[in-house]
């Protein structure tokens, strides 16, 4: 975690960032989640704020401090994240979806703790809404950046997400590679834009990667409106 002296290249821009995992409850003592710690999203929020942006951070449950000058909204489930993101989408300039949103949640949830009993227990799961997909479908003036967490053929699957979700850019991470992915302080990524810019970022701190992503985004925005 580091404060860099930044040029205020995002001054006047409203940036919405999602971070962390979501948590999908079965009963008061059990839930499904994933290994996301929120570091990448928080690094993006911190660097965007220090570049002068007005930053809203929609965060799943994480153990991180709120970066300086960032407006943080805490959520737990994919559904709550959906509500917060979609209701704020209209007046955002840049949206970055770094959160690891659950794809499935338990179909039934219980207010009372379930007691264990002998034998197996099968949990039926249902799909959550794909927040990013919906943002892509509703996109107007926003610059929309998604993440792709992959273990096999990262570039192929990442490109598919860029196209399918109508993104302006995708940050592809191989979460199975050394030093990258969940919980690490570093990431190696491929940044691909819809307009055809491709950047390979070697293993670097998540703060440095965040700066690169944001600078790359500003360059794209400037090339749009000369
Ligand atoms: N995402 C989302 N809502 C979901 C699932 C994913 O907004 N319900 C977003 C993530 O925040 C990320 C992007 O979609 O920016 C890609 O997430 P990823 O898990 O890599 O891909 P999926 O589209 O969920 O496909 P799969 O997990 O099958 O690879
Ligand atoms: Ca997923």
Explain this structure.
- The protein contains 5 helices and 12 strands.
- With 226 residues, the protein is of the alpha/beta class.
- The chain has one domain (14-107, 126-224): CoaB-like (Rossmann fold, 3-Layer(aba) Sandwich), CATH 3.40.50.10300.
- An 8-stranded mixed beta sheet has the order 5-4-1-6-9-10-11-12, sandwiched between helices. Strands 2-3 form a two-stranded antiparallel sheet.
- The longest helix has 19 residues, at 206-224.
- The chain is globular and about 60 Å long.
- The two termini are 34 Å apart.
- The model has no long low-confidence stretch (mean pLDDT 96).
- The structure holds cytidine-5'-triphosphate and calcium ion.
- Cytidine-5'-triphosphate is lined by residues 78, 97, 99, 101, 103, 128-132, 146-149, 161.
- Outline, from the CA principal axes? globular
Average pLDDT, all residues:
96
What is the β-strand count? 12
CATH superfamily: CoaB-like
Name every ligand kind in the structure. Answer: cytidine-5'-triphosphate, calcium ion
Structural class: alpha/beta
- Radius of gyration from the alpha-carbon trace, in angstroms: 18 Å
EC number: 4.1.1.36, 6.3.2.5
GO molecular function: FMN binding; metal ion binding; phosphopantothenate--cysteine ligase activity; phosphopantothenoylcysteine decarboxylase activity
Family: In the N-terminal section; belongs to the HFCD (homo-oligomeric flavin containing Cys decarboxylase) superfamily.
Pathway: Cofactor biosynthesis; coenzyme A biosynthesis; CoA from (R)-pantothenate: step 2/5; Cofactor biosynthesis; coenzyme A biosynthesis; CoA from (R)-pantothenate: step 3/5
